[in-house]
Amino acid sequence: MKTSFIPIDYDYFDWQGKNYIIMIGRDDKGKRICVIDTCDIYLWAILNSKIKELKIKELQEKIEKIKLDIKGRKTRVEKVELHDKNFLGEKVKAFKVYATNYKDLHDIADKLGMKEIEKRRGYDLGFVTHNILEKKIIPLNWYEIEGKLLNNSEDFGGIDMAYDVDLCIKLEKSKQIEEKNFKPKILAYDIECDEFKIGEGEILMISLVGENFKKVITWKEQGKKYPNVEMVKDEAELIEKFVEYVRKNSPDFLVGYFSDGFDLPYIKARSEKHQIKLSLGLDDSQPTFSRGIMLTGKIKGIVHIDLLKFIRTAYSQYMQSETLSLNEVAKEFIGDEKKDFKFKHSSKINEDEWEKYFEYNLHDSILTYGLFEKMWPDIVGFTKVMQEPVFDVSRNGMSKNVESYIIHNLEKYNEIPEKRPTHEEISERKQKEKYEGAFVLEPIPGLYEDLAMFDFASSYGSVVVSYNLSKSTLLEKPSKDSYSIEISSKKVYFSKKIGFVPEILKEIINKRKLFKKEFKESEKEDVIKRARSNAYKLLANAYYGYQGFFGARYYSYEAAAATAAFARKSIKEVIEKINKGGYKTIYSDTDSISFLLNGKTESETLKFLENLNKNLPGIMELELEGFFKRGLWITTRAGTAGAKKKYALIDKKGKVKIRGFETVRRDWCKLARTTQNKIIRLILEHGSEEKSMEYAKEIIKKLKSREIPKEDLIIRTQLKKPISEYKSISPHVIAAKKMQEQKIPIDQIGLIEYYIAETPGAKTKLIRDKVKLPDEKGEYNIEYYLNNQILPAIENIFQVFGINAKELVDGKKQMTLGEF
DNA sequence: ATATACACGGATCCCCTATTTCC
DNA sequence: GGAAATAGGGGATCCGTGTA
Known about the structure:
Blueprint: E1 2-15, E2 18-26, E3 32-37, E4 41-47, H1 53-64, E5 67-70, E6 73-76, E7 80-87, E8 90-99, H2 105-111, E9 117-121, H3 127-135, E10 143-149, H4 159-162, E11 167-176, E12 186-193, E13 203-210, E14 213-218, E15 229-231, H5 235-249, E16 253-256, H6 263-273, E17 288-289, E18 297-298, E19 303-306, H7 307-314, H8 326-334, H9 354-386, H10 390-393, H11 398-407, H12 423-431, E20 440-441, E21 446-456, H13 459-466, E22 474-475, E23 482-487, E24 490-495, H14 500-521, H15 527-547, H16 557-580, E25 584-589, E26 592-596, H17 602-614, E27 622-633, E28 647-650, E29 656-659, H18 670-686, H19 690-704, E30 715-718, H20 731-741, E31 751-756, E32 771-772, H21 782-799, H22 805-819
Parallel strand pairs: 3-11, 12-16, 14-15, 16-19
Antiparallel strand pairs: 1-2, 1-10, 2-3, 4-8, 4-9, 5-6, 7-8, 10-11, 12-13, 13-14, 17-18, 20-25, 21-26, 21-27, 22-24, 23-24, 25-26, 27-28, 28-29, 30-31, 31-32
Helix pairs in contact: 8-9, 9-15, 11-15, 13-14, 13-15, 13-16, 14-15, 18-19, 18-21, 19-21, 19-22
The chain binds a DNA duplex through residues 292-294, 396-400, 402-403, 426, 434-440, 455, 459-460, 541-552, 560, 563-564, 589-592, 636-638, 643-646, 659-662, 664-667, 717-718, 720, 726-732, 766-768, 788, 792.
């Protein structure tokens, strides 16, 4: 039997004591194929360098005789081979110790505690990863496979009959082939319930959306007919219907939004209550959930995707949306939003409101479906780059992705993989003192004309590569021919012989450059190339964080601290050169520098940049971020110091770039934000403050005469932990308490909305005593919004021009008094 | 459990001192 | 007149949210 094959989902099973991998995928005709395979199972025992030849042989024989009896299952070491390998860049001799079952490796490792064996490695990767490493059948790549067709076969306990697939093949040969077109079958789903707590309420409806498939299943509001709505008799039947439709559609991907934490566990809990088997898996198995705080729901053969998780790692840092709610994310990515429906308990929904509810439910699945389609190229890109199954890649954070990438690229360096840190190691690492981070230059407040901004491309990444900073290149003793730098008054040294970790990163940066160039030069927009370029970009950026992350296999405090130190040194040197070159630096943060052109032309400045680059070490490179017509820096709220991480720029085309100001902060009311934004824009456009002052006066007047709609005064703050854990009872905590009392559900993100009201007769002057929920009756507190929202947002901007905004606020008050 | 440090600023917390209240 | 209650100032801390 020979066929094409694209693996999508990976799982494993035991048969007669041996591990087998099971890959579910498609052929180029769209047939669903199940492929069974296995590989050598082994761990590495690294030998002490002082061990004698003779002793090695003896030890090998001893290990070969190891027998295990685990919970009544008898097994043994199959064979032992001696190999020349590298571990953390050092040449080592290591035994490759073979076993029958991956699960036994741990127990075998425990028996290898002899003093001649220095380290035991490679038994904590997981069988799926191990198999991908061994057999190189990488998710979402195309293969031509050959093997035995299993048809009503007894092999593997009749697995071909258990799985609902078109073909089941025991793999014998495989080779990677050219990319073929693959359009995944997608089914998006969403549920609506009365209670937000998992399983506490009833599921009212479930919507499902696939290609040419739209359905809402419900047991509420029977009797009437609605488009796309199918009525069933009760909740139990609703769940059964859901299972039936998933099975009928037989998707490759079942996609939800926050479905790991809500929809799937909810359905599971309700099905348990009704004692219904939730046979969603291709082998009729039920979804399983990983333990731990963050749930993940897995369905055999169908990849369950929680899009929220992928968005969080892959996009959130570059997104405009203030929250990752389905509504905002859909708006940003596909220009569509949720249907309007005000959440109510089902008992309070009028007959004529149900149709809206059904539409709302269906539309959520439509949005989820649309988002998945939009993100599919990136999901493919990530999966192929990290070489891990889609299920994992779509959920993993960037540190895990970095690690996957390293693990799957060790072979070139003949490296044995490092182990995961133990709990003790993790707590030790966590206790380490924080090292000094980025350098931020205090700006000189003011409004400036004609500026340029330079920044380092992949700053920290290029530092790691240029100075060879990693766990394996850190030298124990000072050495002359090495890179050295001081971290917290201690000198550290790194070898100049390039380590495999910096080399892998160098490759990432190079590939990123290559793919970026490729997709920019491609005639029509090539989403796949763009996605791959993006995956490498994110990897390069996450690399530095990974080295400093306590859970990392290749953690290195010294390398991380040295990276920050070298970066500080580099940027300070560049600032000096810029100032010596006749420019004037205004501000700098981490890897970017803004400076005044001081009458120099743009082409002169570009030439200057070229020269700067000639003298930078290694692969470090400065880029032009842009030329700007004007720029604004202000003081901190407290004093005369220039405020860091806050500035606004306008370019020649009038495009404004605002960083750090209240304008971009979601915990300020809309009025303060839009007012500040407008004022900044007016100042940048006109180069003076008159127009913006007029505008400010007008807003203040409107606020005082209560002309501002309440929605512009709503303050949004995220509740980040359970109410009881707050030591400091701030306004948003009070608002959350009120919501709890009034049984208003707090959304999944925990965004709390409130406004500050006039509360005559209030005893204290605490803001929290004036908190009211948006729906609560009351008048907004003029004093508060003037002094705590508008004034702080504009005061320091006007201070640049020597204007006291406080007088603007108060002075206006007298005038309005005069008007009456 | 799941990348890092730096930074701002509101609001509360908490301690101290001064003032007011009460007997 | 002296003790207790209250008010207010100011630094420390908590908290959320940004920049890079």
